[in-house]
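FIELD: query
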Amino acid sequence: MEHKEKFYLQIADNALILSHRLSEYCSNAPFLEEDLANTNVALDLIGLAESVYTELASQKGTGTADDYAYRRTEEQFFNCTMTELDYPDFAHLMVRQFFMDNFHFHFFSELVHSKDEFLSALALKSIKEVTYHLRRSSEWIIRMGDGTEEAHQRMIAAIERMWSHHEELFTPSEADLEMLNNNVAPNLSRIKELCMQKVQEIFYFAKLAVPETIPNAYQGKKGIHTEQMGHILSEMQFLPGKYPEAVW
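FIELD: result
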C-alpha cells in the first residue's frame, strides 16, 4: 500500500471507529441534550471518514467509500487503538473524546498548510467542527474533574486507562514520515507539544494531574489492534457482509 493511501486511511479510520463507539452511547448520556450532542459529534466524524474514503476511491478509480468501511479486515484498518476502546462509564467516554478532539483540533489546524489540496480543504472544513467538539469535551473534563468526589475518582480511573494509548497519536508511522517529507502531513512532534499545552491547561482547571509518560506499546497504525477491534468490525460489517448486493 502506498504511503499516501495509508496516511489518508489513518485519518478516516480514526474518525470512523471513534464515531461507531460514540454511536453506541446513544440514549445513555446523562441528559437529552448531551445525548444529542454525542450523536452530532458521531455524525461529524462519519462525514469526515466518508469524505476521505470517497476521495480515495475516486483517486484509485475503483470501489466506493462503503468498500473501505465494510470490506476491509482488521489488519487493514490503521486507526489508533484509543478509538476502539470500550467505555465503562461517561467519564471514560469524555476523557477519550477530549484526547481525540484535542488531537484533531491541532492536527487539522496544521494540515490546512498541506500541499495536498484535498487534505487542505478537508482540514479547513473540519476545524469548524472540531473547535466545537474540543470546547464541549473540555468543559466536561473540568465539570467532572472539579465535581463530586465520585466524579473526580471516575475521571482519574478513565485518564489512567486512556493515557497509555495517548502517546500513539503522536508516534509517526512510515506514512506520517513520508508525507511530512513531502510537505503533505504536519509534524507530529509539534502537534504533541500543542496538545500537551491544552491538556495541562484543562487538567489544571479540573484539578486533575497529568500522568507521567508511559512508553507507547500500541501499533494501531500498523494494523495491530486490541481485541475489541474485532468485535467492532463484526457488528459494524454484519449487514453489508450478509447482504453484499443490498442498496441502502
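FIELD: remark
The longest helix spans residues 32-60.
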